[in-house]
Amino acid sequence: MIILASASPRRKELLSTLVNAFEVRPADIDETPFSMESPEEYVIRMAREKAEAIAKHDVEHRDVIIASDTSVVIDEQILGKPESFEHAKEMLRALSGKTHQVMTSVCVCNGGLNRVATCNVISDVSFREISDLEIEHYWKTGEPCDKAGSYAIQGVGGMFVKHMSGSFSAVVGLPIYEVSQFLSEFGVSPLKENIRE
Ligand SMILES: Cc1cn([C@H]2C[C@H](O)[C@@H](COP(=O)(O)OP(=O)(O)OP(=O)(O)O)O2)c(=O)[nH]c1=O
């Protein structure tokens, strides 16, 4: 069985492009960064801890667990999901007119945790200038509230994105290329899964 250790609807949708059958089991972990931890170390640790939390309960040795974490990083500062409008405003002001990184880590492991593969996909995203009035209107769309950095590149937030380089699927929450490579290593063939008779 394949288990997606995530509450994110975006990750569920992206994984369903690769595999037909999987179970969704969100992992509840403490997402507070350690002091002195770099953004790279943080996102990799988050994905790994989400996978390990799921591996602890009710899994078979041969199950394949997929976990991921997305953080927006500007000037080495980690931006997670906003807690309020003021928090989202602070983040979007920091991103306005600048280039930031989106880091999405992936951890794929088996239920026995003796096979673990991790990676961190880093993309560069450049925003145009955004006014405070636009930030206010954007908040009212409801889109920023559950997104790292308070925006969604795949949604209305796409109108702020002047340029991006890297992996679009990773920015949305799950890098299709890297996950498909890991799945193949774990004996799951995404192409065969998608053959329609
Ligand atoms: C930057 C960006 C993030 N996001 C989303 C992807 C993730 O769902 C979310 C980042 O938060 P995460 O903490 O990585 O994920 P999550 O809490 O939604 O789900 P889980 O931890 O259970 O896997 O932000 C977008 O949808 N579009 C974007 O452009």
TrEMBL record:
- Please tell me where this protein is predominantly located: cytoplasm
Catalyses: UTP + H2O = UMP + diphosphate + H(+); dTTP + H2O = dTMP + diphosphate + H(+)
Keywords in alphabetical order, please: Cytoplasm, Hydrolase, Nucleotide metabolism
Q: State the family it belongs to.
A: Belongs to the Maf family. YhdE subfamily.
Listed name of the protein: dTTP/UTP pyrophosphatase
Enzyme class, UniProt record, top EC level? hydrolase
Cofactor(s), by name: a divalent metal cation
Enumerate the CDD domains for this protein.
Maf
Signal sequence span per UniProt? none
Q: Which residues form the active site?
A: 69
Instruction: Note the superkingdom of the native organism.
Output: Bacteria
EC numbers: 3.6.1.9
Annotated source species = Marinomonas ostreistagni
Q: Does the keyword Transmembrane helix apply?
A: no
Task: Enumerate the InterPro entries for this protein.
Answer: ITPase-like_fam (IPR029001), Maf-like (IPR003697)
Q: Where in the cell is it found?
A: Cytoplasm
This chain's function reads:
Nucleoside triphosphate pyrophosphatase that hydrolyzes dTTP and UTP. May have a dual role in cell division arrest and in preventing the incorporation of modified nucleotides into cellular nucleic acids.
Q: Where is this site: Important for substrate specificity?
A: 10, 70, 154
